[in-house]
Structure formats: C-alpha cells, structure tokens
Amino acid sequence: MIALWILAIIAGVAAIVWGAETFAKHLGEAAVRLQISSFALALLLAGAEPEELATTIAATLKDAPAIAFGDVIGANIAVCLVALGVGAIIAPLPFGKQVMRYALFGLPIGVAAVGFIWDGQVTRIEGAILLALYILYLGMIWIVERQPPAMGETEAIEEAAARLAQEEISKNRGRVGKELLLVVAGLAAMTIGSLMLVEAVRQITNVEATQTTLSLTVVGFATAFELVILCWSAARKGATEVVIAGVVGSFAYNVTMTLGAASVIRPLNITDATLLHKPAIAMLLALVLVIVLATPTKQITQKAGWLLVGAYPIFLLAMFWLSS
C-alpha cells in the first residue's frame, strides 16, 4: 500500500510541474487576448507562486497543518539553495540593487512570519496580517522601483506576452482561444496534483513529526521545482536581474500570501511547535547565506552556487536525522 502512495506522490509532483509549466507558458498569450497585463492576470488567477499556494491550501483543507507549514518552509529553502544554486552553477546570477531590495525587504517579513509560526499555530487574524505584509512588500518595491514588481514566474509570463504581441497575435484579442483553456488546465493540474501529494503524505503516515519531515523535504522541493527550472533556464539564456528578483521575491510570497491564505481559510495548528523551530531558522539562514555570498561581487558566482547546492543535502540529512 505504501508503494501505491509513493506512486501517488510521483504522479502528484508530475501534475504540479506540468500544471505550473502550462500555466506560465500560456498565461502571457491569454493576457494578450483578454487585453489585460499578464502581471495582473497572474495575481488574479493564482498569484506569483501557484504551486506552493495550491499545495498549502490543499493541506489546510485536508486538515494537515504540518504539511502546510512544511511546504512553505521547505519550498523557501529549496528556492534559496537549489534554484539559485543551480542557476549560478550554469552561469553567474546578477544580484544588483533590484534583487537585493527583494531579498532585504523579504528578510524582516520572513522573521515576522517565523514569529507567527514559532508557537505552532497561525490564526486567521495572523493570516490576515501576513496577507497585509505581502501587499506592503509589493507596495514598497513598486514605490521604490516605480514599476510592478516581478514575482516568481511573472517576468517569464511578461516575456511570453511581449513575444506574442510582436507576432501580432494581438490582432485577434477579441477571441479568447485555447490559451485561456490551457491556463485553466494548468491550474486544475496543480490543484489535482496538490491534493494527490497531500493525501499521499497523509496516507503514508499520520505521525505529525514524519509529515513535517516529508513536507520540508519532498513536498517543499516538489513545489519549488518550477523555480529551479526557471533559474536553470534563465542562466542558460543569460539571466536578467528582473528574473532573479522574481525568484528571490518568491521567498516573501510564500511566507506571506501562501501561509496567510491557508490560515485564513482554516487556522493552522500543530501539536509540537518545536518541529518547526530549527527548519524555520534554517529558512532564514538560507536567505541570509544568499545575501552574504552575493554582496561582495553583486552576483552569485559559480563557486557560491556550488556552496548553496551543497548546503541542501546537509539540510535534508538534518531533517531526517532529527525525525529519527
């Protein structure tokens, strides 16, 4: 039976990855046809990081708060260590003023989120505060940069929209074609995959500590995988600062919008809050490590990339050791 649920995890991860890829690939086209900005459409339909949001909400609806907490923390660690690390190994990633703003603004927000998480529960009021912090985060960046913030994959979506506009697809704006259907299909796949992933973890174990460990590692990495691919692809193409800013910005998105939305739907509460203490600190340290490595040269070098990627298996081993 466990083997069956392991297959369900694999299928769920595949559905999430396909859904996220399909969503990002066709959202720009849908935005052109609907005559709205793809940034606005991304936030309207699923936010900047729909994979994490869908999985955390699925965990909330399934009354599995350990999975919700673990996914948020684990995904952020994977983004900082694996996504940025893999990208930097391919080619140095730019970490100029724009990216540094995203990171530095996200750090105190991360600290605030850890403060809410520390007692093992996030109430609806605290969830609402986290959502407000996300709006504040976007607002601060928007004011400083005088342009809409790049979050998660929204920059890639904007590029798709620009490319399609150049190909004169905008001439057919009045007809919403298959692009919008594919966007919806992507969202549906992410939703189904998230439900499968959460249910599989629940069926494999009902022990809170084990659920937390699996979520910090397997689930967190699965939902961050799309950003790993994005960083890898961006580095191969000569990564722009705005793309890396979007990846870094996903850290703040996850601890505010993702965690906040889940707790507003249903307050999150685990029995043993100490299960989250070390992982939550590790999450903050992962972002601090990125900032420290990037500050001297205003980029994440190949050497720094190897260091980030090498730190991730240490985190995984620590999580499994602590749960044993």
UniProtKB/TrEMBL annotation:
GO terms under cellular component: plasma membrane
Predominant cellular place of this UniProt entry's protein: membrane
Biological processes per GO annotation: intracellular calcium ion homeostasis
GO MF terms, alphabetically ordered: calcium channel activity; calcium, potassium:sodium antiporter activity
Sequence intervals crossing the membrane: 73-95, 102-118, 124-144, 180-201, 213-235, 242-264, 276-294, 306-323
Domain of life: Bacteria
Compartments where located: Membrane
Membrane topology: Multi-pass membrane protein
Annotated InterPro entries: K/Na/Ca-exchanger, NaCa_Exmemb, NCX_ion-bd_dom_sf
Keywords, ordered alphabetically: Membrane, Transmembrane, Transmembrane helix
Domain Sodium/calcium exchanger membrane region, first and last residues per copy: 6-141, 180-321
The name this protein goes by in its record: Sodium/calcium exchanger membrane region
Organism: Fischerella thermalis JSC-11
